Amino acid sequence: MSTSSTNGFRRLRFTDGDGTSYERIFSAEYNGRDLGTDTFVTEGTHYEYTIVGDDDLTLRTMRSEGGRRGGVIGPRDDHVVFWLTKGLLEMHFADRSRIIEPGSAYIASASEAYRFESADTVYNGLHLSDAFLRSVGDELGYRLPSGPLLFDQQDEAVAQREPLRRLVQDLAPALLDDRVVGPMRTALNRRLATVVLDTFPVRDRGDDIPVANRLRDAIRYVEAHAADRPSVPEIAAACGLSQRGLQDVFARTLGTTPNRFLRDHRLDCVRRALLHAAGDDGVTPIARQWGFTNPGRFAAAYRERFGEDPAATLRASRAAQPETGRSSWRVRRAVAHIERHVDAELTVEQIAAAAGVRPRRLQQLFQEECGQSPMAYVRALRSAARRNTRAGIGGRA
Q1: Confidence of residue 396 (pLDDT cuts 50, 70, 90)
Q2: Which of 39, 214, 242, 258 could potentially form a cystine with 71 if both were Cys, beta carbons 3.0 to 4.6 Å apart?
Q3: Contacts of 200 by beta carbon, 8 Å cutoff, 6+ apart
Q4: What is the pLDDT at residue 92?
């Protein structure tokens, strides 16, 4: 184990290679219970666990390969938000069990104990102290329970936009820099804590509705009424926020304004329609269906969002022969890369690079042509492989 500490900032690294036992991770950072019998790592497992941050917030990564690991994590002082980028994680709480796969962020509340088991996983996590999260909630004027602070998972309408993961990626260079300390680090920590409170609903608040649910309702209202081009007051009224409150939550959580979010969603709808256009309909009639009446402004906005003219999208769609189920060549290239490397660690960035597009563009193409995200396709392929293996079908040489 190696450590360093400067002005409240610490950096720790636990590995099997330097003789640090797996139990040491639990006793040092997790308050693990029943370590003698419940914590285990199978022979041949290689692991590396890193921690970077201060007492309020830390970024953490666990890479475990070549075996299985598990244990019990008891009630602790911090809430854990994490993503898997590889493998499966089983979590067993007192009242429920979950199997976590690579994809959306998952939260484990500080007061809840759970048993876990995993194999060949890569985990990226964000640990926020309960006291710090409560202090940010108080500053925002949120009504938090006086008892345990318990969170529900993100609604799919919010989770698919990955607001927290995008913010972590933006702030990571500063958060990993040991020169960023004191008020500067606290300000970064507060931005992340705010998005956690904005996107994960807090339980046990009586009749009070969490902002996370109001954001969900705003997104769903926009999606349902996009063609009608609802105004900001209409969106705010639909989700129970003031206009200022709506503007604030969109800015700090999604990094945009309600109007820009609405416009981008309408552009997405136009693109989807172009990709599935039937007959001889051109771009203009489809654009008008979604409220774009100025062809020049529409074309400029479309190019800004998708990197190509709408007419080019329509031509590519017809060339892809959707009636035969034939997908575009970039999606086919991405699928081929996934199938070749399905057993390796895959990220959207790697798949996008193999397909020759930006990650965001790849996400759009998969949703439009496959009805799912690239990582959902990866998970489905791996699940099918596991089912075949259990059934004695196929297998890899």
Answers
A1: very low
A2: 39
A3: 81, 107, 151, 152, 153, 154, 212
A4: 94
pLDDT given at position 98? 92
pLDDT per position as a tens digit, 89-130: 999 999 899 999 888 899 999 999 999 999 889 999 999 999
Tell me the backbone φ, ψ of residue 204, rounded to 5 degrees. Answer: 60, 50
Query: What mean pLDDT comes out for the span 49-77?
Result: 91
Q: Which of 62, 154, 153 is nearest to 116 (CA)?
A: 62
Neighbour count for residue 391 (Cβ, 10 Å): 8
Query: Mean per-residue pLDDT for 323-327?
Result: 50
Helix 359-370 crosses helix 374-390 at what angle (to 10 degrees)? 60
33: left (phi over 0), alpha (psi -120 to 50) or beta: beta
Task: Tell me what pLDDT residue 361 has.
Answer: 85
Q: Which residues contact residue 322 at a Cβ distance below 8 angstroms, ignoring those fewer than 6 apart?
A: 275, 276, 369
Work out the percent of the chain whose per-residue pLDDT is above 70. 88
Q: What is the dihedral of CA 51, 251, 103, 304, to 10 degrees?
A: -120
Quote the pLDDT of residue 344: 79
Three-class DSSP labels, the chain: CEEEEECCEEEEEEECCCCCCHHHHHHHHHCECCHHHHCEECCCCEEEEEEEECCCEEEEEEEEEEEEEEEEECCCCEEEEEEEEEEEEEEECCCCEEEECCCCCEEECCCCCEEEEEEEEEEEEEEEEHHHHHHHHHHHCCCCCCCCCCECCCCHHHHCCCHHHHHHHHHHHHHCCCCCCCHHHHHHHHHHHHHHHHHCCECCCCCCCCHHHHHHHHHHHHHHHHHHCCCHHHHHHHHCCCHHHHHHHHHHHHCCCHHHHHHHHHHHHHHHHHHCCCCCCCHHHHHHHCCCCCHHHHHHHHHHHHCCCHHHHHHHHHHCCHHHCCCCHHHHHHHHHHHHCCCCCCCHHHHHHHHCCCHHHHHHHHHHHHCCCHHHHHHHHHHHHHHHHHCCCCCCC
Tokens at 149, concatenated:
């602070």
